[in-house]
Design a protein that fits this description.
Belongs to the asparaginase 1 family. There is one protein chain. The protein has ten helices and 14 strands. The protein is an alpha/beta fold and 361 residues long. It folds into two domains: 34-235, Rossmann fold (3-Layer(aba) Sandwich), CATH 3.40.50.1170; 249-360, Rossmann fold. Helix 8 (321-324) links the parallel strand 13 and strand 14. It is globular. It starts with 5 loop residues before the first helix and ends with a helix.
Amino acid sequence: MLHKNPAQSMIALFGLLFCMASATQAQHAAPKLANVTILATGGTIAGSGASSTTTVGYTAATVGVQRLIAAVPELAKVANVNGEQVFQIASENMTNEHWLTLAKRVNVLLAQSNVDGIVITHGTDTLEETAYFLNLVVKSRKPVVLVGAMRPSTAISADGPINLYNSVMLAASPEAVGKGVLVAMNDQIQSARDVTKVNTSTLDSFRTPELGLLGYIQGSKPFFYRQQIRKHTTETEFDIGALQVLPQVDIVYGYANVGPVAVDAFMAAGAKGIIHAGVGDGSLAARVKPALVAAHAKGAVVVRASRVGQGILARNGEANDDELDFVVADTLSAQKARILLMLALTKTTSTKEIQRMFYTY
């Protein structure tokens, strides 16, 4: 109903128009940005070379996290970003102790309501191992994304900035929730369990050759086409909260003319588990089998894996695992089998239980 007084009518009309404009503006307001914490550990993504054309022979882990963030101002468009320098190392120097420190920090951060996702910058040499370890011990459905680079930050064609942008966008996205720990490089989304480094230097070095990537990143959006169905993160039985050290597990590589020396040396050094990366389907050479049997008799858990890199390791295939009381690695690489065995040994030494874990995770 209009006011009889013209002035009052105009005031009422302006008020109505203002309310309508405010409502329309609110509808079109930019969505609230997620809060993403970048945990930096060093690596090539934080490396520098002698010149802009230096893509090999550079020095890793020279650039701090704040400089990494500042170099990609576009991050502010996809998330509220802050950074922490957890380590500053080349990833070949990553240790069990580093993993425990990193994982505990991730769990603390993800328990906070003001953290929606985590990005971890990491050297590529052991990135797949760190990713799988976190995949087994992170206790949150919030996204955790590992990212690295194949070229240093000073290179004329550095891949670090776009990889970092994509990883932050992915960690901020609702689509990544509950997908387990992810690896985002070269515009692709890979699962921590299955991804591996397949080339020494090219930009497409991270792949999942047989089982396939999870999806792509395009136009600042993630596109998922499949997901990891093996249990991970909140679904696992592993709790590292009170752990200060992981059991010693070592890898013995199979090759022509292999002997018992490596197995014996690892056992003398205190190994609680041995991963045998055998030839073919995890075959046991006649000269190394007695050493593995002796290691088992001394209490070590022996897991048969393969150096091939693809395929299922058949139980009771190239060895009578039931009789030997050995475990098989399923599709896990030797380096990832080592990680699972270390965590398994914090729970049990039963080979039946450990075999169940290898078929579960």
